[in-house]
Amino acid sequence: SRREFWDALAQLSTQGMTILLATPYLDEAERCHRVALMHDGRLHRTGTPAELRQSLGLQRLEVRATDLRQAEATLIGRDGIADVQRFGDRLDVLVREAESGERAVREALGEAVASVRTASPTLENTFVAILRSLEGETRVPPFPDRRHHEPAGDPVAIGARGLRRTFGEFVAVKGIDLEVRYGEVYGLLGANGAGKTTTIKMLCGLLEPSGGEVRLAGEIGELRSETVRQQVGYMSQKFSLYDDLTIDENLDFFAGVYQVPRERREARKRWVLEFAGLPGKGGQLTGSLPGGWKQRVAFGAAIMHEPRVLFLDEPTSGVDPIARRAFWAMINQLADQGTAILVTTHYLEEAEQCNRLGFMVAGELVTEGTPSGVKAAQGGRVLEVLADDPQRAVALLKTALEPWRVSLFGDRFHVIVDGDAQAAARDLTARLAREGIRVRDAREEDYSLEDVFLVIAEKGVVAA
Known about the structure:
Helices cover 37% and strands 27% of the residues. The protein has 17 helices and 20 strands.
């Protein structure tokens, strides 16, 4: 749906319309001709996405290691390393110069390094660096009075076998099998109407399955017992907090529902307010909060009782890049301590943070794997093309090829091709030249998760 929205914007742009877009999502900003970073009421940087990325003056290394948590801790603050961010199956490490940076990484991690790959910095890397220079490093406050969870006897925290759900004659979920283990972050992806939310509601006991079996926190069948409820946290995309209550009143309600001991409640509430960037604001009406701040409070409320299993439905919707990093730092802390976390998200750069991913199409779970694994499993190649008049080029290619193969990204576009990438690039260059469009560059790029999502969704819909 988002790609169709951007196609519509591109068409309007070619017709002479000027479009001003506000977004916290940097993958969307990559699709704009020019971008401006606004902070604290001021414009701090403007330019094309390529100009802004180049202005960072850093290189990005994708580092894979045997123990990402330990590798991250080792590299943070080390000389020559500007930033470290953990993703589901890799670290992104920003360095001044790629060769010396890789050498520093290998010296620090030794035999723990599985691979190091040089990649271009992202727009999010750039914006986070700029925001940090303006407001300093964002610190995730330590969780107060943290309990020690004993290892579970059964490593599977969330399990489904043959899970089905029908609404009348409509089959929303078609017999899926799924497992999420303690200490794992699992991302459930799919287009609107794919069945993600229905699946989550069945997995956490909010909706009765029409068929199949669900296992949650060691229980099978009876998922609404008090024992299970106290081990589960749930953050809904659309409804988590009561707007007509104050923040304190909402947190008191959640603490009561989840039976947080009274002697711990005030410390936990203060932690949520600090995490949300709202210290001392507990008396503020929740409905007056901007969307991003409300999401932070809702996340804090969902983990006040230190759940063993956590369901997050679009947790960072509307959240800025710095706050999103704080979210994921906390999510990783919970996973490191053994919490099983199931996340749904439409923000595909965010899906890279998950250890494993599952893609749903038309009620079926069609693909599972690590972020790098699902990319490697795709057939075909991705060409990134820089051409004069990219909007017209995309419009022409969408008529010549299957439309889902072509996606516009601001001043460039991606084309998913079969067979040899160089031959496809020559053919594409000649095809556009015949229409009077000069291709300035066409190179093979790795699949992004958005490319993977589109391929899987389109193939799945055709098969269905």
